[in-house]
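Appendix B. Raw example, untouched.
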Amino acid sequence: MSAVHRVVALAIPDVVAFDLSIPAQVFGHYDERDRYSFAVCAERPGDVPTSTGFSVSVRHGLEALDHADTVLVPGFHPHLAPPDYAIDALRRVAARGTRIASVCIGAFALATAGLLDGRVATTHWQYADDFRRLHPQVSLNPDILYADEGQILTSAGISAGVDLCLHMVRLDYGANAAADVARRMVVAVHRTGGQAQYSQRPLPADGGLGDTLEWAITQMRRPLTVDSLAHRAGMSRRTFVRRFAEQVGTTPMRWLVGQRVLEAQRLLEATTLDVDDIADRCGFGSAAVLRLHLARQVGMTPTAYRRAARRPEPV
């Protein structure tokens, strides 16, 4: 990766303008010039129609993909038949090991290229049936906001592209950098819940878990259990676990560990607290447990992560 991370969006006619604007706003904003460069490419330079009645002027052809550190594919219509040139280009990019991500129904291009085979992926809940029919070899989860499979990432419907892009900023430059971008965009740096809460699938009136998740984040220093979370939500353990999987896309304890790791990353970046204190504040109980989970999720020790972040500030 170069000193400035190069992000290139591939605009396939008729590109969904909102999907394209999300990475443009996250990676192409003037405030990000020291971290990212952003460009849009198409089959050839020129005007590319959007799905909403206007065109975007694109200066770069497919050769721009050759120099990208990250390639993003916004949604496009008709989503069922991505053009051959795009599929060939994505396969070439993937073979080089470049990170590739899709926004919303852009996942259909990644799946057609075979990049999602055997992986967990997501897309807009409204097109889940189409996706399963065309790509049964992909493990589709339409209830999560994004899926990170390492080199290949996908986001759910439309605004979930914001969540995915913030996640990539966090991977590239740390939790504080993602928080800076989220503040600028006036969005949550990490939304609780999943895409299921916006779909037309009927859920019980009391089925939302947002209040419980927000409470858990404020109480993560405590030794929370599935039973304590279920009690807070006013549900039986069995019902809570089932609804958690439906609405969040994972298990309660896996989600909680992820939140604790995110908080540990923030504290490692933004404070001078020692590792034992951070482990205690995040509910890990010991520095050894914090090291274990941080290594699993970001592949670094707390000391190495803090050194890489280089943003210590006094508490």
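End of appendix B.
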